[in-house]
Amino acid sequence: MRKMDGNGLKVVFMLCLAFVTTGGQSFESTVSQLLRDETEDLKCFVDRKKDLTCFWEVEEARNDQYTFMYSFENKKKMPCVVSSRFVLASNKTVFFCKLPKTLFFVALDVQVFRDGRTLYNRSLKAENVFFVDPPRNLTVMSSGKEGQLNVSWLPPLLKHMDDIMIYEVRYAVEGSHMGKVEEKAASTTLVLRDLQSGTRYKVWVRVKLDGVSYKSYWSSWTDPVFADTLPSDMDLLIVLLVLSIGLILFLLSLTVILSHHKFLLKKLWPDIPTPEHKFPDLFTVYKGDFKEWMSQNNGSIWGRSVHVFTEEPPSPVEILSEVSPTSYDTSPREERKPTEEVEESEQTDSGLMGGWREPPHANWLMEQMRALQENPESLSQSTLLQSHDTYVALNQNSQHVQEVSERQTDDVFEETLPLQALFTTEGTSSLSASHSDLGSLPQSSGSGRLSSQSSFEDPNHTWPPKGPGYTYMAVADSGISMDYSPMSSSNIAELRKHRIYTNEYKNEIFGNKWPFSSQHVESGY
Amino acid sequence: MFHGSGLFALLLMVLEWTRPGLSSPLRPICDLRVLDLYIKEAWDAEAAIRACKDDCSSATNFTVPLTSVDFDVWEAMNIEEQAQEVQSGIHVLNEAISSLQAFNQTDVIQSHIDATISNIVSIRQVLRSLSIPEYVPPTSGGEDKETQKASSVSELFQIHVNFLRGKVRLLLASAPVCHQGVS
């Protein structure tokens, strides 16, 4: 027994070595699969070398003596050497016997004896128990068409039997357990159709003999191969269309914007009107100090007029609320300006100065003005001059002028001069063509006369009663620090509605001469 | 009279020699699906006869060819030896199946027998198309060579199927005519 055990071990070792060199691992996998698939207790198979092997599993590894006998065509029975092996994949021990010679197309009788008693008895034909290897080189590629995949593989190495193989292709969406199967005979390529677009698929293939001449078990499945189907043409088309339309719209909008960029810029980011160009160096050199600028700038348009202003004392302005319609006829007048100044339309500002009458309480006003001039900061606190309380009233027509001129032609001319000064910029003699800021003032005619009324913030404010020859002009300013922000051209229309003329009046006429928060200008007859 | 019979004999000799209608060269039939068709029909016949459990015909003791194939031995044989083994086996099978017609059997079995005989004729044509040497009867008594005995009709048809599946198919698959141009 010990010798037999020693010999048995040697045989087992040699057989194991033989199986390892000839594909021992395939034997294990074959055995594992047949243990699941073959229903017979004594399982037999023919490998690719056309050698038949029979095996059976053992529950408990005991030292039983097995005898294997076989015979072809009912001829003399011959013994076969039995070996054992532990199959790791199945966690089982099997005894097996590989026949030294295998005959096909003839009946084979196999018997297994254990301890002299028949354990298994089976009659089979070798050509019916082939076990083929799985297909090789499985390849899955997109066919170039939507929802299709090209599957190709190579048959297992089995001599003379390539044309009798049947293949089974299994495919499923990656991650899904629901798969489909397609059978293909002889050919080693297959086109999978009606697949989902833009989806990743998993593909397996297995093979068996067709059973006409040779029969076999199904081989094991190949390792899965993954492949993606092409995305839907419609999806690609929609994306391309959307992108192209978006690009076209973008280019069109860009073209429009670039061609009208100036207009758009003007609309969206309008220039803040600034009188800097009319006051050279005022803001750059003199930092807004109008008084200083006036004093230094002798050759400018406003300079001379301002110079004239500086030469003469400020003319008094009457507060509207204190003006009576009949008290101005005999008011003393100031001396006229020099003639040469009057002749120049640009110096109408000076005429303004000369044209105002001095109200009865002019001295009080004079003092106020001087005080304000000396202390401009008191503007905001001035109780006398409040922007809310004062307003501009210009009501003069040709008739009034004519009437006045009959009495005092010079005065009339002087009276008109201030109006011209108010509403002219540089050399424009026509009052109708005066500042656009003041264009809202209703103008009687284009003769240069101006007839306007304005009151702001208090539409219900009652004007002082207008006499037959009275002209009122009140100007309210918000301060010498000119804030042009609200005075854009677009706001002029608003101002026209609300009749606010504060900044324009002040900046053009009075400037640094009267740095008041508000002013009253009145001329009456 | 002599001239008439002489001319007639000459004509027969010429016809026998030329064998019009039979000597025309056949296109080689290398497609094994043709043989597979005959094998499938042989399977059907074997299954039908097995179903009637040997009660279909009273005939017994048939001489049939050997069907076993040892691939190592077979591949060691040359084409002529393989051809001789196949042709002699077909001849023996044909005689055994043809002898069934003398016995009574059912119509179903009779139809299978007729189909089998017809298929054997076709298989001979296929072998001829592949330029396989014809059967040459043994000069000396060699009937037991490469033959065996079948005790029943069912066994006869099993032998028939196995012979076609094995030796005949291997011969057709390795026919030199079908492998010309393939190195």
TrEMBL record, chain A:
Task: List cellular component terms (GO).
Answer: external side of plasma membrane
Q: Which Pfam families match?
A: EpoR_lig-bind, fn3
User: Which residues does the UniProt record annotate as the domain Fibronectin type-III?
Assistant: 134-232
**Residue ranges of the TM segments:** 236-258
What topology does it adopt in the membrane?
Single-pass type I membrane protein
The compartments listed are: Cell membrane
Spell out the residue ranges making up region: Disordered.
319-356, 428-466
Concerning PROSITE patterns, the annotation shows: FN3 (PS50853)
Tell me the InterPro entries matching this sequence.
Erythropoietin_rcpt (IPR009167), FN3_dom (IPR003961), FN3_sf (IPR036116), Growth/epo_recpt_lig-bind (IPR015152), Ig-like_fold (IPR013783)
Disulfide linkage: C44-C54, C80-C97
Q: Which UniProt keywords apply?
A: Cell membrane, Disulfide bond, Glycoprotein, Membrane, Receptor, Signal, Transmembrane, Transmembrane helix
**Ranges of biased composition (kind: Basic and acidic residues):** 331-340
Q: Which CDD domains match?
A: FN3
Low complexity composition-biased segments: 429-455
Protein family (similarity comment): Belongs to the type I cytokine receptor family. Type 1 subfamily.
Question: Per its record, how is this protein called by name?
Answer: Erythropoietin receptor
The organism is: Phoxinus phoxinus (Eurasian minnow)
Automatic annotation (TrEMBL), chain B:
- Asked whether the keyword NADP is assigned, the reply is no
Q: Which residues form the signal peptide?
A: 1-23
Q: Per UniProt, which keywords does this protein have?
A: Disulfide bond, Erythrocyte maturation, Hormone, Secreted, Signal
Where is this gene product found? Secreted
**Record-linked Gene3D superfamilies:** 1.20.1250.10
Molecular function (GO) terms for this protein are: cytokine activity; erythropoietin receptor binding; hormone activity
An example Gene Ontology CC term for this record: extracellular space
UniProt-listed GO biological process terms: erythrocyte maturation; nucleate erythrocyte development
**What's the family?**
Belongs to the EPO/TPO family.
Q: Can you say what this protein is called?
A: Erythropoietin
Q: Which organism is it from?
A: Phoxinus phoxinus
